[in-house]
Design goal:
Layout (H helix, E strand, L loop, with lengths): L14 H22 L13 H28 L1 H5 L6 H34 L2 H16 L1 H4 L6 H24 L1
Length: 177
């Protein structure tokens, strides 16, 4: 009789791994903000927000481009291919994995990015937030070029750090208020 590959059917906890990952992302950004940011929260308005709004527009263009790429690829350009026997070809599966993961990865981080970006640009520093937003959009846009190779982390990791930079920046500004 063949032995089972896994001793137990119970899943293992990822608590330690998740904690280490969060500390690696959070701690350097908190330290950076703690030692460089001296001001408290301040509501920015009007002309101060110009660059931040331009950055937000760039993000929305990237977001909708990646969404349209997935939708058009599945429902317009390749609709017949997906109904054919060739739909299970490894190259076709790889293409659609890239298209789908590009959009899903963007969605996974979207709410955290937007919440940290809007908070940071409104209450901490709209110009720094704008530049972080431009960089975030760039790294989001290159994800489809890098997935599924390990180099895709060159897109995802900087985006995690950008989000943690802005949210810890808000935290430090709140502490200094």
């Amino acid at each position: 009789m063949q032995q089972p590959l896994v001793e137990s059917a119970a899943p293992k906890s990822s608590l330690v791994h998740a904690t280490v990952i969060i500390v690696i992302l959070w701690l350097p950004m908190l330290a950076l903000n703690w030692f460089t940011q001296t001001e408290g929260l301040k509501l920015h308005d009007g002309p101060e927000m110009k660059l931040a709004m331009q950055s937000l527009m760039v993000y929305f263009v990237v977001w909708y481009f990646i969404m349209a790429r997935q939708g058009a690829s599945r429902n317009i350009v390749n609709a017949e291919l997906l109904k054919s026997p060739k739909a299970t070809d490894p190259a076709v599966l790889a293409w659609f994995l890239n298209v789908d993961r590009s959009f899903l990865n963007m969605q996974e981080q979207c709410s955290m990015f937007l919440a940290s970006f809007v908070s940071y640009t409104l209450f901490v520093d709209p110009n720094v937030g704008a530049y972080v937003g431009f960089a975030y959009s760039f790294f989001t846009a290159i994800y489809p070029l890098l997935h599924p190779s390990p180099s895709m982390f060159a897109s995802t990791l900087p985006r995690y750090y950008f989000i943690f930079y802005m949210v810890t920046g808000c935290f430090v500004a709140a502490v200094r208020s």
